[in-house]
Design brief:
This protein is an alpha+beta fold. 23% of the residues lie in helices and 18% in strands.
Amino acid sequence: MCSGCNEIVDARDAIKCSACEKVDCSKCLKKWHQTKLLPLRMNESEDTRSCMHCRHTPYVPAKLTRIEKSTLDNLEFKCPLCSEDVKYENTRYHTLFGCKMRPKKTVCCPANCGVEGIID
């Protein structure tokens, strides 16, 4: 789960800390770093950015490996609305279009990371 938006991380948009290997959405992480560094001091650089989990400085991002992406995409979840088993890679489509019980209204993540969700 992403610490920024509290959603399951999209494997296509995931980034991890090379020190602690915790995974977050790249958009949420970027927003957290921008917020953390404002206002920038004259002698401050991007090297002062730290991991939001382990606080390792400097923050060195790493992409998920092919195996990590594959593992995430193959996880199955039970839809909380229709109880259908859905693979993670199909969750977004199922939530927005495929669920028989889906509400008619979707909302964007309040952290503005681009993730859309459903509301009752």
